[in-house]
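User: My instructor asked us to take a sequence, write out its structure as tokens, and then describe one feature of it. I'm not sure where to start. Here is the sequence I was given:
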Amino acid sequence: MLKTIAKKTLRYWRPFELIWIFVFCTVAIWITIASDDNLFGFAVFLSGVLCVVLVAKGSILNYPIGIFNTIGYAWLAWLNGLYGEVGLYMLFYLPMMVVGILMWRRHIDAGGIVVMKKLSFKGGLFTMVICVLSTLGLGFVLSQLSGQNTPYIDASTSVLSIVATILMVRRYRDQWTTYIVLNALSIIMWVFRLSSGSAEGALMIVMWSAYLINAFYGFHNWSKGAKLAAGGIDAA
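Assistant: Let's start with the prediction itself. The structure tokens for your sequence are:
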């Protein structure tokens, strides 16, 4: 099934997507060489970029690539004392990769794209309240750990990642508003790590910046997809 979907997906790459990937990968290569970083950090970056672009397109192929990115990013977070990120990626995000494949494969259209939907106003408000309360609680717990850096920012990215992932596997467009906030906070978190001497800091800032741009693109794409799925206006 994945092989068939891959062939269909490759036919629908848009010029913007290809240019976007090329520009950010070029910047990442330059940073990797200039900072004498290892190729593993670049591999994490590249897999992450491909993964989020495929999610924005609504392609189930994002999940196999996302599995590598999840494990790789967790290792980099461990090296930088971001333990909330490590727990999130290994204990939640990795298993959800498998859940996502199982859930999405039942809702794929003829073009190999997942059927999209959006939350109601009440659903969005409830989601926001959960994010705020969970961030405050987890931030307090992380602040008690020795060696933990930026506990409340780390907590917010962890909580938002969980919420966004749940929204993603359930095919909600509203994952992208969550991702926009998440990516902005992640950039701030890695700026702090870079200022503290993190070898991977610059590359991670570029990666999360790429994710942020992609989140706006994903929101646009999924808004059109949700309207089509609900029988709304034409997406052209």
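For the description part of your assignment, you could build on this observation: The CA atoms of residues 103 and 169 lie 7 Å apart. Try explaining in your own words what that tells you about the chain.
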